[in-house]
Design a protein that fits this description.
By secondary structure, the protein is an alpha+beta fold. Helix content is 23%, strand content 15%. It is built from four helices and four strands. Strands 1-4 form a two-stranded antiparallel ribbon. The two termini are 18 Å apart.
């Protein structure tokens, strides 16, 4: 997971506007983005690995597809939020400490990480694949 660099072009690489960048900049988040027009989930995964992690030629699993609808936690004046998530896994030998997108990258141990330390509601994505964090 990473702590985003607020100076990186997150509007393009992660679909985050300045308000959301400020909101999520202090927590850990998964490398993630929205799909671009006509982009397949597999192409998006490779783009995210390249743009956010600066990793190329990863062996990436086929995506697990999850859909959920929920009231927004941070933007409560908006209608229910709908996510269609394509979650893939990759094996890496080492994690870069920093990239152009993230000020810090690390493998997070769920046994010692609290849900409140995770940004962008990515604790829900982790739970969707069976990774439970410590309660707040």
């Amino acid at each position: 997971m990473g702590k985003l660099d607020p100076l990186a072009p997150w509007d393009h690489i992660g679909a985050l506007d300045p308000k959301r960048i400020e909101l999520h900049r202090h927590g850990w988040m998964l490398p993630a983005s929205h799909l671009m027009v006509h982009e397949s989930p597999q192409a998006a995964i490779k783009r995210i690995a390249s743009e956010q992690l600066e990793l190329l030629d990863l062996e990436i699993s086929d995506p697990k597809i999850i859909s959920e609808v929920y009231p927004p936690r941070y933007f409560q004046d908006l209608a229910d939020h709908w996510d269609l998530e394509f979650i893939s896994f990759a094996s890496v030998r080492s994690v870069p400490h920093r990239t152009r997108a993230f000020l810090e990258l690390a493998l997070i141990d769920p046994k010692v990480t609290r849900q409140s330390e995770i940004a962008r509601s990515h604790e829900d994505i982790l739970a969707s694949v069976g990774i439970e964090l410590l309660p707040n």
